[in-house]
Design a protein that fits this description.
The complex is a heterodimer of chains A (934) and B (381). With 934 residues, chain A is of the alpha/beta class. Chain A has 30 helices and 36 strands. The longest helix of chain A has 19 residues. The mean pLDDT of chain A is 95. The chains are: A alpha/beta (934), B alpha/beta (381).
């Protein structure tokens, strides 16, 4: 592929059913009413010169290059700010227009004589031959370059004040970090209150850099390496938004990641991680050679692939011989492609001959899968991201999109600025509650662990005040189930007054939010791990589905129940049969006919008994009945709760095989290390939070010398099971054959359409953007009673505070990727966020070291005083291994899916002057177990 | 009350919106801020725009050099403005009005605030105007010293709390104005002319004036003049009458050299133009503007090259910085006059005239060209 340059229509697309006919330079064109003359012209490839216009932001009219003549109109209107009208006749070139354009460019060049400025291309285009003003006049050449951002620089000398950066920051990203300062000739772009970019509110999303027409904002890597020559369209490997990117390369080197305009999840936008923080993929810490060792106290020994695979297969088979068929298992990765996940679960079911396979969704969105399947019939969100543009009321529960799903947050903010209402249910004052031009209509800062009491109270208000959509319920839902649920929800124990006691939120606010949700038009629920990672995570998911069904808010655009999934392919890893009880496509392993299909395709007998879930694997390991594991791309030693227990389990294994980019925390306990590949080295697909399957394409050959799925296949063959493919496309074909919702998916079709949302099959050959349109996947919508059962993790005199956890924009989950990028400049350590009252009571000042002690353990972090917390609740992120956030989290988990209750831990916080014992030992052990012999 | 205060409002309350608008159309009133757009037509556009909320904005950012009629009116008869805005509100269906007042007028601010409070207490503003059940309220907002915020779209930005940057038109403020809602924007004098139109009838007002310039206008005569001050006359009086009869000639007693009419971006007229009648169209024919009615007198000691340069310097400082011709052109214009490159200067003037986003850049060439044409001798060293 050569370098892709996307067409810029100058002004945004207008959606209008009314069409307007006009003539531009004698050529007829028909466009929707409200379209600009510039866009209409560019649609018929008549390029009107311009500098300040780009189609991701609204017209502005500052450069004055795009002036045109319109029959019957005095003067020379700007084509970007002039809407088309019926019968209009436009001339885009004339002697007068040429004179104006040259005059404008002459003014620009008089201020920017620098020959390498892209302005000179425009000057040549309009035929400017000389700058008669000279260069000795006033100019901006002696301004100072702002180099503070690690990824891009700002050179005001090249700036033409077109404000594309300012407008992109406002309209595309929604941060409002940039402005124009000063007046007239002295006007200049300023970050914040004339600060450096780094110290301003800038979130480094890159929208301004992308929008800049003069290289005034310039990516440092392009300055270093040079302009790219080739583009490969691929999909980001960070969060569940699944942004499309063009990886741009020069020779063998990746120069930059440019957001892809046709990417349906991001429409050309990006965040700091996807746009800039991808170079962990080429970091020196990458392990490129397979390694083995006899004991975890031995140094690692580098070996060839054959030796590593033989060593692994021998150990696994030895363990099985000694401890039985079910004594081994594995964990698939939500960071890997669908194809890689599929072959790992196939390896376990067909070669290990058991169902001991699980995935990290266990610890994040497993309640989503359960709750939505039981009520609606599908283990996935109901909408496309674009659906939010038709939403009138957003209810955001336990999610912090501006940090965790930044690109979708920008889309939400756009809709909110255009007038949608917002309800935020979250213990913390998150970035959505109040940000520039956005203020939540209701923020219900509930006590962590009381979600179900809250959702029941909201439903209670809806039903008791008759705000439900009875026609919808009668037509689409199981009316017996509704009737049972109705009786339950009307019980006074579910009233807002009762809920106030549990949640700490005033009953009247709950009532008001409930009324808004039920009567505000299209209402959509967006939620994150603040819903699922609770002992009642599944109950809460069911509660939200109940509420949405009762108000008719499922089955059309603008509504829905939408999980904001955390990892790039966590939806996909679930779809691909990563659960111990489910084959790909969520078909029960106990279902004879489903199993028979797989047995036929794979020529093997499958075990009908479900296998172990991750926490059960750890328990069994500690018990000594589970002795070997193959873990691909997941760092359980850092990410899973109760670290002491996880470490004990790891140490008890006879064989641990870790496949990863880096020697992660789990690898400290491993006997085999198989080097993995980054997303830049893979062919395959990721499935995002809106069920969108997008292609991941190889930008470079695997640095390790082997495709990751091929490693898995070789391990299978070494264990005596023949599994082989010649490419990733063949794996997708097998997935399509075996998975009804993927039946119509193939690489060819994906290449042709860009992306597809499952289900994609004979009934829906184009895929399914919105689910449950005419009826629910399960038939009738199922209401399920959701009794509130408080968590057993409670505060008392000894542990009076509740600790809850979350993510921050610049870092990502366990930080394996982002910690190896320049993103550390924004967040180089995890802190404990605490309300000033709680801090004062304990004599804690901002920046003090504090010991956080729970019933499970203790760790030490730096305190950060913030009123974003409510008194009684403290918060930390978990990006740094040495933070040991999971030393303190408990063993509690969701009753239905065993998803850990990360979000509620009773703790006490005190000042201290030394690290915890675990933290002190961590450093030394960490070093020792990572030693590689030369 | 003794001076027929609020009579126009009381009559308006008996009329339909459309009838009020028609009365203003009949009067021939045109915008006194400078652009001279027919007020009734503007109101009609806002009346016909469908919206839940509409606004009346009074432009009291009186920034032209040598002008003070808005200030005098607000200081001496604030109720007249309040009444005019309320009638405008009734006419277009707006319930909220803002007075965008320049911060250099602190006395106006306190007087207006007191007057608004008094009008509220006496039910001439508020929830139940004169017992009619109709609602209108007014708030005073202060500018921050920027000339360009007198440009109506920059004023809207400033009222919305943003940097005063000019918006491209379309959309017209009458369709998408303050906070995106249909908005009437009128100058103080335009709005203050409304009560008498409604009280005495559009025809009564239209009886004054000549041609398409109907009614009266408050001229402000300043600069090098013996008797400076404010003169309200019907359109059609000659420039000479104002300067010599009312003003009494130059203050210095030296020979009159130039008269700048219509603010810092108005044309410089000479003794040859004293017969010119004060009428929008007559001025337009000679490449001049009436603007807000400011008349500034210069005697023979004035150097017109310096005055031309001042026009560019003024523009360079006061430009909002949005469009290229105004932002860079104004600085280059200053430099060209210093370098005496008048050929390129003429081209620059044409460029600014044809391609600027708003009247700020578009009109800066007017004083420059008039000075260059009438006093070429001043431009040779």
């Amino acid at each position: 592929m050569s370098l892709i340059t996307e067409k810029d229509y100058g002004t945004p697309e207008i959606k209008s059913e009314k069409l307007v006919n006009l003539v531009i330079d004698g050529k007829k064109v028909t466009v929707p009413e409200g379209t600009s003359v510039m866009r209409a012209a560019r649609q018929i490839d008549t390029d009107i010169p311009s500098l300040c216009a780009t189609d991701s932001i609204k017209e502005y009219g500052s450069c004055r290059l795009c002036l045109v003549e319109v029959d019957g109109v005095r003067g020379t209107p700007a084509s970007c700010t002039t809407p088309v009208s019926d019968g209009m006749s436009v001339k885009t070139s004339s002697e007068r227009l040429t004179r104006i354009r040259r005059g404008i460019m002459e003014l620009y060049i008089s201020d920017h004589p620098d020959e390498d400025s892209p302005l000179h291309d425009m000057a040549r285009l309009v035929g400017l031959e000389e700058n008669r003003y000279g260069t000795e006049g006033h100019n901006h050449l002696k301004t100072i370059i702002d180099d503070s951002n690690p990824y891009f620089s700002f050179d005001p000398a090249k700036c033409i004040l077109c404000a594309r950066c300012v407008r992109a920051c406002e309209e595309v990203q929604g941060t409002f970090a940039l402005t124009i300062d000063g007046r007239g000739f002295d006007s200049k772009i300023a970050a914040g209150t004339d600060q450096s970019f780094l110290s301003s509110d800038c979130v480094s999303c890159g929208a301004c850099v992308q929008a800049c027409p003069t290289d005034s904002l310039f990516e440092k890597r392009v300055a270093e390496i040079g302009q790219p020559e080739r583009s490969v369209v691929t999909t980001c490997a960070y969060c569940g938004v699944g942004c499309g990117f063009k990886a741009e390369t020069k020779g063998e080197e990746v120069v930059r990641m440019m957001p892809w305009k046709d990417g349906m999840a991001n429409h050309g936008h990006s965040c700091v991680k996807g746009r800039f923080a991808w170079d962990y993929a080429i970091h020196n810490d990458r392990i490129l050679s397979p390694m083995i060792r006899d004991k975890i106290t031995d140094p690692w020994k580098k070996v060839g692939w054959d030796e590593a695979i033989k060593f692994s297969a021998d150990r696994l088979m030895t363990v099985q011989k000694k401890y039985g068929r079910k004594s081994i298992g594995g964990i698939t990765s939500s960071r890997c492609t669908n194809e890689e996940v599929f072959v790992v679960q196939k390896l376990i079911r067909a070669a290990f001959k058991n169902n001991n396979v699980d995935t990290c969704a266990r610890v994040c969105h497993s309640p989503t899968g359960y709750g939505l399947r039981e009520t609606l019939g599908t283990s996935a969100g109901t909408q496309t991201f674009d659906s939010v543009m038709d939403t009138d009321v957003m209810m955001v529960i336990g999610a912090n999109p501006p940090d965790a799903h930044p690109v979708f947050a920008s889309q939400m903010k756009k809709r909110l600025r255009d007038g949608a209402k917002l309800i935020v249910i979250d213990p913390r004052k998150t970035g959505l509650v109040k940000s520039p031009h956005i203020k939540a209509d209701y923020h219900l800062p509930l006590q962590p662990g009381t979600n179900v009491a809250m959702i029941n109270a909201i439903a209670h208000v809806v039903i008791s005040e008759g705000l439900m959509d009875q026609d919808y319920i009668d037509e689409r839902c199981d009316t017996d189930a509704f009737s049972d649920w109705r009786n339950f929800i009307l019980d006074p124990i579910n009233s807002p007054k009762e809920a106030e006691k549990h949640t700490g939120v005033a009953a009247e606010d709950i009532c008001a939010a409930a009324r808004l949700y039920a009567t505000g038009g299209n209402s959509a629920i967006y939620y994150g791990l603040g819903v699922t990672e609770h002992s009642q995570g599944s109950t809460m998911v069911i509660g939200m589905a109940n509420l949405a069904m009762a108000t008719g808010n499922i089955g059309k655009v603008g509504v829905g129940v939408n999980p904001l999934r955390g990892q790039n392919n966590v939806q996909g890893s679930c779809d691909m049969g990563s659960f111990p009880n489910e084959l790909p496509g969520y078909r029960p392993i106990s279902d004879d006919s489903a199993r028979a299909e797989f047995e036929k395709e794979w020529s093997v007998d499958l075990d009908p008994e479900p296998g172990l879930r991750i926490p059960n694997m750890f328990d069994a390991a500690v018990d000594g009945t589970y002795k070997a594991m193959y873990i691909q791309g997941e760092d359980v030693a850092q990410s899973d709760p109760n670290t002491h227990h996880v470490e004990a389990a790891m140490k008890a294994l006879d064989c641990l095989i870790v496949q990863d980019l880096f020697l992660n925390e789990t690898a400290r306990f491993a006997h085999v290390f198989l080097p993995g590949t980054s997303f830049l080295e893979k062919n395959g697909t990721f499935t995002n939070a809106e069920r969108r399957i997008s292609r991941v394409r190889k930008v470079m050959e695997p640095i390790t010398g082997m495709d990751e799925w091929e490693v898995t296949c070789r391990l299978g063959r070494a264990m005596g099971y023949d599994m082989s493919y010649s490419n990733a496309s063949e794996i997708m074909d097998e997935i399509a054959r075996l998975t009804p919702t993927f039946a119509g998916v193939s690489f060819d079709k994906l290449d042709e359409r860009g992306s597809i949302q499952w289900p994609c099959n004979e009934a829906a050959p184009e895929g399914t953007p919105i689910m449950h349109i005419d009826s629910f996947v399960r038939g009738k919508g199922n209401f399920i009673v959701t009794e509130y059962v408080p968590t057993t993790e409670r505060t008392n005199r000894k542990f009076p505070l509740i600790l809850t956890t979350g993510r921050i924009l610049s870092q990502y989950n366990v930080g394996a990727q982002t910690r190896r990028t320049k993103n550390n400049i924004w967040h180089d350590q995890d802190t404990l966020d605490i309300h000033p009252h709680d801090a004062e009571n304990r004599g804690i000042s901002d920046g003090d070291m504090v010991r956080i002690q729970s019933r499970m353990g203790e760790t030490v972090l730096e305190a950060k005083l913030t009123e974003n917390m409510q008194p009684g609740v403290v918060y930390t992120t978990f990006h740094m291994p040495e933070s040991g956030a999971n030393i303190i989290t408990t063993d509690n988990s969701d009753w239905a899916t065993a998803c850990p209750e990360y979000k509620v831990t009773a703790v006490e916080v005190r000042s201290t002057n030394r690290k915890s014992k675990w933290q002190e030992e961590f450093g030394g052990f960490s070093e020792a177990t990572r030693h590689i012999s030369k | 009350m003794e001076n027929d205060g609020f009579k126009g409002l009381e009559k308006s309350l008996k009329l339909s919106s459309k009838e009020i608008v028609d009365e203003v159309i009949t009067s021939g009133l045109r915008g006194r801020g400078g652009a001279a757009f027919p007020t009734g037509i503007k109101w009609n556009t806002v009346l016909e725009a469908e919206a839940e909320q509409k606004y009346i904005c009074c432009n009291a950012d009186e920034g032209d050099s040598g002008t003070f009629s808005d200030r005098i009116l607000m200081e001496s008869d604030p109720f007249c403005l309040i009444e005019g805005m309320t009638i405008a509100g009734l006419a277009v269906g707006a319930t909220m009005g803002y007075i965008y007042l320049r911060s250099e007028y602190p006395l106006c601010r306190s007087i207006l605030r007191k007057a608004i409070a008094i009008a509220n207490v006496n039910n001439y503003l508020g929830k139940d105007i004169c017992g009619s059940g109709k609602y209108f309220d007014i708030e005073v907002r202060l500018g921050a010293g920027s000339y360009v915020c007198g440009e109506e779209t920059a004023m809207l930005e400033s009222l919305e709390g943003k940097r005063g940057m000019v918006r491209a038109k379309p959309p017209l403020p009458a369709h998408i104005g303050l906070f995106g809602k249909p908005t009437v924007i009128n100058n103080v004098i335009s709005l203050a002319s409304v009560p008498i139109i409604l009280d005495k009838g559009g025809d009564h007002y239209a009886n004054y004036g000549i041609g398409r310039s109907r009614g009266t206008i408050a001229f402000q005569i300043t600069g090098n003049i013996k008797r400076g001050g404010l003169v309200e006359k019907a359109f059609g009086v000659s420039l000479g009458t104002l300067v010599n009869d009312f003003g009494g000639g130059t203050w210095s007693g030296k020979e009159l050299k130039a008269i700048q009419v219509g603010g810092p971006l108005g044309a410089y007229l000479s003794q040859d133009d004293l017969e010119l009648l004060l009428d929008y169209e007559a001025f337009s024919e000679v490449g001049a503007v009436l603007g807000h009615g400011g008349i500034v007198i210069f005697d023979e000691t004035a150097n017109m090259k310096d005055q031309a340069k001042f026009a560019f310097e003024f523009c360079a400082i006061e430009s909002c910085g949005k469009c290229t011709p105004c932002r860079i052109g104004s600085t280059r214009g200053t430099e060209l006059i210093e370098k005496q490159d008048y050929e390129l200067l003429k081209e620059l003037c044409e460029l600014m005239d044809t391609s600027s986003l708003c009247a700020m850049g578009g009109m800066t060439p007017i004083p420059v060209k008039s000075a260059l044409n009438k006093w070429p001798g001043d431009f040779k060293d």
